Amino acid sequence: MEKHARDSDLSTEGEEPPAKRRKRTPTFLSSREVGLMRSMPGHKISTFVGSSSGVHFIRSVYSALRAHPDTTVPNSTSGSNIVPGEDDHLLEASPNVPRQLWKSHDISTDGNPLLTFQNLLDWSRSYFAHWHPTYPFLHAPAILTFFETLAQRGDTRDATNSEYDIVILKSIMSISLADRRQSVTEGEEPYPAEIVFQSYDEAVQSVQHAISQPVSMQSLQAALGVQLFLVSMLRFNAASRLGGLIIRMALQMGLHRCPQRYPSFSLAQKELRHRVFFSLYCIDRFICQSTGLPLSLRDDDTDVCYLSHERHAGGNPSPGQRSFHSCSTVADRLLQDTRLRLLEFLSRHCRIRGEIMELKHKCIQHTRRETDQSTVITSQLSKLANDIGEFVDFDDVEPRSLSSYHKSILDIMYHEAVISLNRPIIASKKSGASYDAALQQCITSARFIITALHNAIKPASAGSQRSFSLLWPSFTWAVWMSSFVLFHAAATKHVSIAMVSRFADRSLGVLEHLARRGSVWPEACGAAIRDLQAQLTLNVSGKSTESHAAVREPSSPSPYNMTYPHSTQMPNATHLSSDASPHVVARSLNQVTGHPHGTYRQEGLTACDTGDGSVANLNVQFNSLNSSAPPVDDSSQVGSGRGLEAWNGDEQDEFSGFDIPFWLGQDQYSGMVSEWS
């Protein structure tokens, strides 16, 4: 032993000690996204968009699709920093003057509208067919009773009408009127102006008394109705602020506690409290994910049971002690109403999305190591999909409890969750088996989402109608994010450019249908997709013409190293910035095609003059916004200005420019970067 030790000492004598190994970014931090803190030009305020909205991935894709180095590309602007639904960024020309929501043929301004019971039923039919099954926070028989009373009185301004009844009425009718814009039916009778909201300001102000008045179930239902209207029109910032009031009202009413625990509630009260809670829970989870904000209602603060697994029947048993076979009378009653199983499926989806947000998008100080949590979430998603499939297989009651429209919503939500779970991995600079697996899962889900939505609006045969209208608010985000996933896959040569072009055209068709509702965001997303097409064309065509330049071969053979189809190339694409605002891109298209600034209609997209800002108006607004914006350091974008090669380097801080200084403070952030390096 001593001889061996001496030999070892002699063999290493005179050699320098090995260099200190460089600390690497922890694995659980490298596969996560971060949010973005922004300053709005012209305003002395800052806004924050969280990473679960997808803003980090969007900026990464824009960086990856930048043109080759000898092409001049402007610095980052607001186009790559905004996600669908951020209505705070829709700058109004006259912010103090509320804009009208409806066109002249949508509503009737006749001072004496004919409010018959049948008319009220017809006008509200879309709401009760599409929205009430998913968010049943209203008591439908009570609404029908109010319709009868209103038809007898004939005037919404009758002093005997409850203030909150009128708010609920306007919410139902406003949502139904917006739904009708996406239908193919023509010649419909206009809605009386008295039964719809005339502006978003009117909608929000209609529930302001709920702040100072004692909380009640009716006031909470009215606030939920207004919030759902805002969500349906993709006004997520306003809906989020109103959601803060709604959550506090619900907590004060004790809706976060299972009603089965309290015998003082009647059967009808228990049922309604159950429905209202899970409705506001699902709406809040959707808003938090879309805006990237922390969860307003955490799962560990609630104990309301699902219909199929009631834990509080007959006393207070421990969790898991009772099954749904031993539920109390009201639970049995709810379970027998299979229409409410849709609410349970949506709630389980939203719970899983919340777990994904907590795992992938938590503040760095409180981030947990992923270990097997991603596998647990994947198994939960698979189990939920299997439970839905089993329910559909045995749903032989006519009419079916789950319509094809609502079944499609559940399918889309499943694939949205798959993308949200795996997107942080593909947004990182890493490569390997985990990256490849995550990317392939995202590609599969993105293809499914775009295909399913496109098939839904495509007539089955000539002369036939489409399967159903796309009314669900997350469809805009889903098709937008799916398109970015495919563009990312094309940039990394995992799919062909031709395939991405085909799916981009389908996405534009879906966004055209969604734009008919009146929200500007589908058109903005369509402009962003066209911008990415132009950048992908520029990258591929530019590299193919540089025969004298050295081309670095990929590490593995790829069948997708091909040029972009000439039929889809855009004129003067070199003048379009990958980071430009979607509305600025639309304005650029006006110039290169010779159309007047305010009259150009994008191919496949129709501008909706809805009062909240048409594409033409927003072009001017975003142009002024961008011109007044201070220059943004290119280092704030991952791999900015370096093409795809920047993704392979680890010399830059991948969190630069995002929200870590906001969460930790500059001193802590500096120490963390030094420690990693």
Automatic annotation (TrEMBL):
GO biological process: DNA-templated transcription
The UniProt record lists the keyword Cell membrane: no
Any one GO molecular function term: DNA-binding transcription factor activity
Listed Pfam families: Fungal_trans (PF04082)
Residue intervals of the Xylanolytic transcriptional activator regulatory domain: 239-313
Disordered: region residues: 1-27
Keyword annotations from UniProtKB, A to Z: Nucleus
PANTHER family recorded: MISCELLANEOUS ZN(II)2CYS6 TRANSCRIPTION FACTOR (EUROFUNG), TRANSCRIPTION FACTOR PDR1
Full protein name: Xylanolytic transcriptional activator regulatory domain-containing protein
Organism, as annotated: Pseudopithomyces chartarum
